[in-house]
Amino acid sequence: AQSVSQHNHHVILSEAASLELGCNYSYGGTVNLFWYVQYPGQHLQLLLKYFSGDPLVKGIKGFEAEFIKSKFSFNLRKPSVQWSDTAEYFCAVDESYIPTFGRGTSLIVHP
Amino acid sequence: DTGVSQNPRHKITKRGQNVTFRCDPISEHNRLYWYRQTLGQGPEFLTYFQNEAQLEKSRLLSDRFSAERPKGSFSTLEIQRTEQGDSAMYLCASSSDRVVETQYFGPGTRLLVL
User: Fold this and answer.
1) Cα B37 to Cα B50: distance, rounded to the nearest angstrom
2) Residue B6, SS3?
């Protein structure tokens, strides 16, 4: 069965710090990869996705993620975080329309 | 707003009672998903529909759980003889198969079984 690991469960940063959240998955075949974000009091929404092509994917609000097939990884990055980035971040891997989510990373950004 | 809606938003019930949740997807979306999320975990897939057909069910979905999407529009998730372990957030998401697997999530129904 597919599994998704998010290594950082809680991250605390100051504004303007750089962010990298790790995501590794277990399946070796063709997958679709996603990062979702859940802001406080809001529902899950898509941050970015990778299906094929350029392994460096750009999403909303200055986020990007890089798919490294050899490492089964899809890490999320942002060069300079803002207080408004405080949220829960979920990595997800989709195989044949069945998504598997990681347990999430809680990010707190101090102003 | 034409996003995914879920009702009720909160449900408190006693162990052994039946509960039913409703999900209204984005109108043109033909795929509809149900997930369960517990504290500190990501969403866990339960089941999904392509139009009115239920195409996949997780092993997490015990016999006490049933989902329907009779006309390919809204869906219901029923839990019979609820147990305390059923306490969770139940999420619904929908997607169009024209844009592969970008799912749009609803706000969820939070269930507490006493």
Assistant:
1) 22
2) strand
B44 contacts A101? CB cut-off 8 A:
yes
Whether residue B1 is predicted with pLDDT greater than 70 in this model: the reply is no
> With an 8 Å Cβ cutoff, are A101 and B100 in contact?
no
* Residues of chain B contacting A43 with CB distance shorter than 8 Å: 91, 105-108
Is A36's pLDDT higher than 80? yes
Burial class (CB in 10 A: 0-12, 13-18, 19+), B74: middle
The angle subtended at Cα A73 by Cα A85 and Cα A42, nearest 5°, is 30
**Token duo for residue A4:** 């998704």
In Å, the largest CA–CA distance within chain B is: 42
Q: Say whether pLDDT at B98 is over 70.
A: no
